[in-house]
Automatic annotation (TrEMBL), chains A, B, C, D, E, F:
One of its GO terms (molecular function) is hydantoin racemase activity. It is an enzyme of class 5 (isomerase). Belongs to the HyuE racemase family. Gene3D superfamilies: 3.40.50.12500. It comes from Sagittula marina. Keywords: Isomerase. It catalyses: a D-5-monosubstituted hydantoin = a L-5-monosubstituted hydantoin; D-5-benzylhydantoin = L-5-benzylhydantoin; D-5-isobutylhydantoin = L-5-isobutylhydantoin. The keyword Zinc-finger does not apply. InterPro entries: Asp/Glu/hydantoin_racemase, Hydantoin_racemase-like, Iso_Racemase_Enz_sf. This is Hydantoin racemase. Its EC number is 5.1.99.5.
Length: 231, 231, 231, 231, 231, 231
């Protein structure tokens, strides 16, 4: 099985981290194919998200032509998921959808910890669309730029941990979802530090796509996700 | 006051029709500035929508730099509204949001009539996000491609009228929203033929933007729609 | 175009303030017609609201007979809107509906600041009905009686400002809606003091009615808002 | 225990019918006190409802002064319930709230059969406010004026029965709520004819008020339903 | 009329308290029949709830065979209500459904105070299912084990009172629902100490069942609650 | 990895079918351990579900003691999931939750086809709890008893196919979820006959548990699903 992990921003280091996180959890016979977008260096808000789409969709189309089995869009804002599903025959998932649906199976309620405050309403809107607002206690921000997660000594990981501890104390949540692809390598440490399930979108999205493909399931092609019309 | 009416698809004839529809209803001292995207010739589904965004956002940025007061995104799928709001200082609205919110003020329930079946779930998702599912009886399709609305003798207008009549009969709706920018010139005829308020997004969006600008209101810049971060 | 701004309470000073606020924002060729109810001196809760209705509806019927084009009910509790819509041929809107729908177009989330705590559940119920609970962070009260807004030296305006500042700090809202018609003259000052969009219902309702009338739209007459049955 | 059954319309025959229906089900030591409004002869829509309120509230105030224990507002549109609760110390309920909450305890889903189509959106809005839309299959109308229920030979009762049979067939509902106070005397016959629980608001409202009073419960007076402010 | 009050846990003292609370409020001609389950000594979470069901259902079946008129399941987690309704011909209710629906008639918003934190999500899930999340400010725990309510000198009643006072202060709720059958004997004292309606599920459930039976209503038998299929 | 597939009813043939369906899709190094309950022969409604729980939980406890990694409860009514999660350290899922969450990732809307009409409200209630009502077009029944699926020549599989075809035609759904564990062996044939994704709960639940375990995730133990309290 071949799964595309496509990072819609243009920071190759984040792609590498996501590919590594995915490869670490899939079965030995599953190949993770990485791809990097041509848009902004990080996705912080609606504009960045929009500008990432053509590069993202080009990678999806290329992978589809090469016979990919399933696709992970490695960004927590779930950019262009509907468009990717129109291009793909196999299943497609973004990090937010994968992570919050997993969280909803492992706890009665969860909070999300993301990077910047401006991403909070984006994520709240996604969760409302996924129907899980009643299980989401709160979407929080650790007030760090996305790229600080890539810098040694930025103190970013400690800020994420402290925000998780506040979430447990104030929100009475039972699990925490990490609201940024760039946090994938912190999951184990954060879970150990905080004592609750900490859910990283990259890991869980890769496993869910592997599961859907393994169950023989494909994206429906009869209406909302049918192949784009020829013009 | 200057209002941008930007058609995110690349069919200039649709831009002209939208500009004309907007100009016909705004005050004599309001200038409608038209702009056309560089994406697909029509927006039929998620992929087309995604591919229209860079062209749309370029027009918005250009207009913003030139001092526009408010912006109508002239497509019923409300593409890139969040991203446009990040770029704009004034108010921004898409056709679906404008039209369904207007419909919710004029009737206790409404139905939407769009072009192709594949647009139905896109519109349902938008209406769910706008919180108006409980007032929307049904989203229907007249089963016509968007561009048929531009062709003489395609029978498209009669199909739209017949679908509205079915909506009245079957959905017991009190108003109908036209679910495509390309139907703007049919509004008056459709209302006369069917006897209920028929709401065209272009017209109502232009008037709502004129109203918000006239009330001195601007897009909030403190979180979700703050200016895109420099990278 | 002639728009009725009808204040359902019997305090003429509040009518004057509302008429002035509306006249200040509409086009020069739009005439604002003021009218004052015969009910309680202020509307603070369900009982006051109910007792204001016959006077309100009499004014609406009179204006309708005289050929009014659209109607603003100048109270934030949106009293009798459905009944007014049955009497009116043109569009009718209350302050809460106009303001929260405007807020939903200018921000991803907003809070409301009203006068007395007893109005909080009334407004929450309205917002639930309008489908915007998911965008409303919180309905707050500045703990001032409605008529204190009319008194020099009551400290009311400072209390409203301080409550808005608390809303920004605690609710992380991006805009604030003023939850009382009597706050209309404070809007500009409050926005300057707090740095976020502050939305006054009177202003925005007048502009929205002007927009709907200008778009050629009328209240649907085929079911929920049909003309009252003769007995 | 004394319970007020107040009919907000001015048709004394409907009051008599409601009082009789209530008296037939309460305990022998519960006194039903009837009262009739001064508004329209029947309540068919928002305007009639609004015009019924002053008369209704006058009766409630009078009964409260005389020491009533609980109050049934005998109309299915639940007019002025919030206002009545502000005046009352004991519990207050309208027919719709009582009947749909009872239906939600006796079945997994129900439909409502009312008189005129114009009442459908009024009732749908109430049920949305009560949070029971997910258990309400459909609100239907038998297309009869309210007062036809009072006329011999109008065929009204057969029309109601036929609509209930259609509700069972088409909606797969498990119970039916009668959406008009004037249907109270048909309940037993309709249940026998259709084989499912048919729930009349008058009966169930009287019993629920008797239950709440008997449990020692009163209307909360600390915020939303606090006594009207003196002006 | 005979009403079964069945305590699904195996602590007979709690049954006695519930029977006494019910008997104290029903009419003199209503007989309360008590029954005790065979499951865990208290119901604290999903597992305890599940393990209580066979014993609970055996008591219900026995009572049904003996001709019971209605049934109260005397536990706030509403265990096995659907199953009991399949067995019963008369109405069946659990404490949570009865109490929150009563609270929704007496106040615009309420909070719940239960025993242990682990019961909070169970109750939140129930309230979501009953459609009353929008009226429930918060579900709180007094952090006491269920059986502490049965022990002299445990300080449990003071903890419950203090939590109610915090709910009034922090949640701005207008009424409080007691989230455990074992609190039934504290209601009067708590209401006196806190000044707001304090609603005990046992009392209100017994009265509601008495009301539904008295109104001639029975559980619908045509689909969701039809008699269990013979195997 | 070892996954328990526990059939809560007592029909061993259904366990065998579920184990086979699960084993067919998991990786070669994943061991499926089957277990059969001691309750009713099939689960048709709330009573059967309740009576299946002690046997189900005994199997879960046994497997947990023996070191199981994850658990599938192989019934579409998702019986006792919360209780199982309290007993388990690893992830636990029921068929309905797994299948509808998968369907929500593969289509914009889906319908469910179950066996008997009495199961429809059970499933609707589950889907409401999972927050996916807005993506579920309709829950339908093929009007066949569960055990007919085990009988040669019962015509059951054709009835299921015909109901799926009606769902496509009438509901405009894009995928169908099979609402009974006993349909697991029909999936491939039904998908071929109908041309849309047909989603079987057993298969997808086994793959999702394999995915969650593979991602290193466990059930949260800090509140709602904490280990049952010792009594």
């Amino acid at each position: 099985m071949k799964i595309l992990v496509v990072n819609p921003n243009s920071t190759a280091a984040m792609t590498d981290k996501a590919v590594a996180a995915a490869q670490a959890v899939v079965h030995s016979d599953t190949v993770i194919v990485g791809a990097t977008g041509t848009g902004p260096a990080s996705i912080e808000g609606h504009y960045d998200e929009a500008m990432s789409l053509p590069g993202l969709l080009a990678e999806v189309a290329k992978a589809e032509a090469a016979g990919i089995d399933g696709i992970v869009v490695a960004c927590f804002d779930d950019p262009g998921i509907g468009a990717c599903r129109e291009l793909a025959s196999g299943p497609v998932i973004g990090l937010c959808e994968a992570a919050v649906k997993a969280a909803s199976m492992l706890s009665t309620s969860f909070s999300v910890v993301t990077t910047l405050p401006r991403s909070i309403p984006v994520i709240e809107h996604l969760i409302h669309g996924y129907g899980l607002s009643h299980q989401c206690r709160r979407v929080r921000s650790a007030a760090i730029p996305v790229l600080a997660l890539e810098e040694e000594g930025s103190g970013a990981r400690e800020k994420v941990r402290d925000e998780i501890l506040r979430a447990i104390e104030e929100d009475h949540c039972e699990a925490v979802v990490l609201g940024c692809a760039g946090m994938a390598d912190l999951t184990e440490w954060l879970s150990a530090e905080t004592g609750i399930p900490v859910i990283d979108g990259v890991t869980v999205a890769a496993k869910m796509i592997e599961a859907l493909v393994g169950a023989g399931l494909k994206t429906s092609k009869i209406s909302g996700y049918s192949t784009p019309n020829k013009k």
